[in-house]
Description:
alpha+beta
Amino acid sequence: MALVTIQVIQGHEAGIVLRDLETPFTIGREEENEVQLNDERISRFHAKVQGNDDALILTDLDSTNGTRVNGHYTKMRMIQLGDQIAVGRCLLIVGNPSEINIAGAGVPVDADDDSSVFLEDNELVQPAFPGGPPECPADLNALQAAQVASLVEFARTEVLAALNSISSRRKSDAGQNDEQISEDVVLPPDAWHRLQSVPGVLARYLTELANPSDE
Length: 215
């Protein structure tokens, strides 16, 4: 059973530190929640955190206003030390300060910041995984590995198709005047480089799924 510390850093309960919470636990407005938050934008039972070996899994419980991790809306995902969970106007951080400092984790995210959905002035979206790409799942049976590989391959081919389309468009527009070029896609350099790196990461996942380590 995993023990988790949750810090409330924004909202009515800001400053509260809930130490050594036993998983699973829930987050919401009702008293039955281990993490009870007084905010009308938060559902009665908003989200759940459960442990699986050394991993932590966050699940949105069909809340009205959604759950975000590091600025990105999610239904279910792995979380780690330093991740910031936004529910309503409240912002929670996973882990205590010493744990987060040791892990070198954490990314500042405003609970009311909607830049993950609507960007202004080409502002770059906060990384969903500031510690780097998540690890490829291990100990899958053949069917599970094939199912995950199919999802990864779908995402990889879709991203590659988008990248190839953008590259082809840029080449075809190279000889035109600025007035003749229709700007269908506008990406700042950092966002473009991040997008270009995705197929390589997904290809690595496919290799690991097809050739699992015996260790």
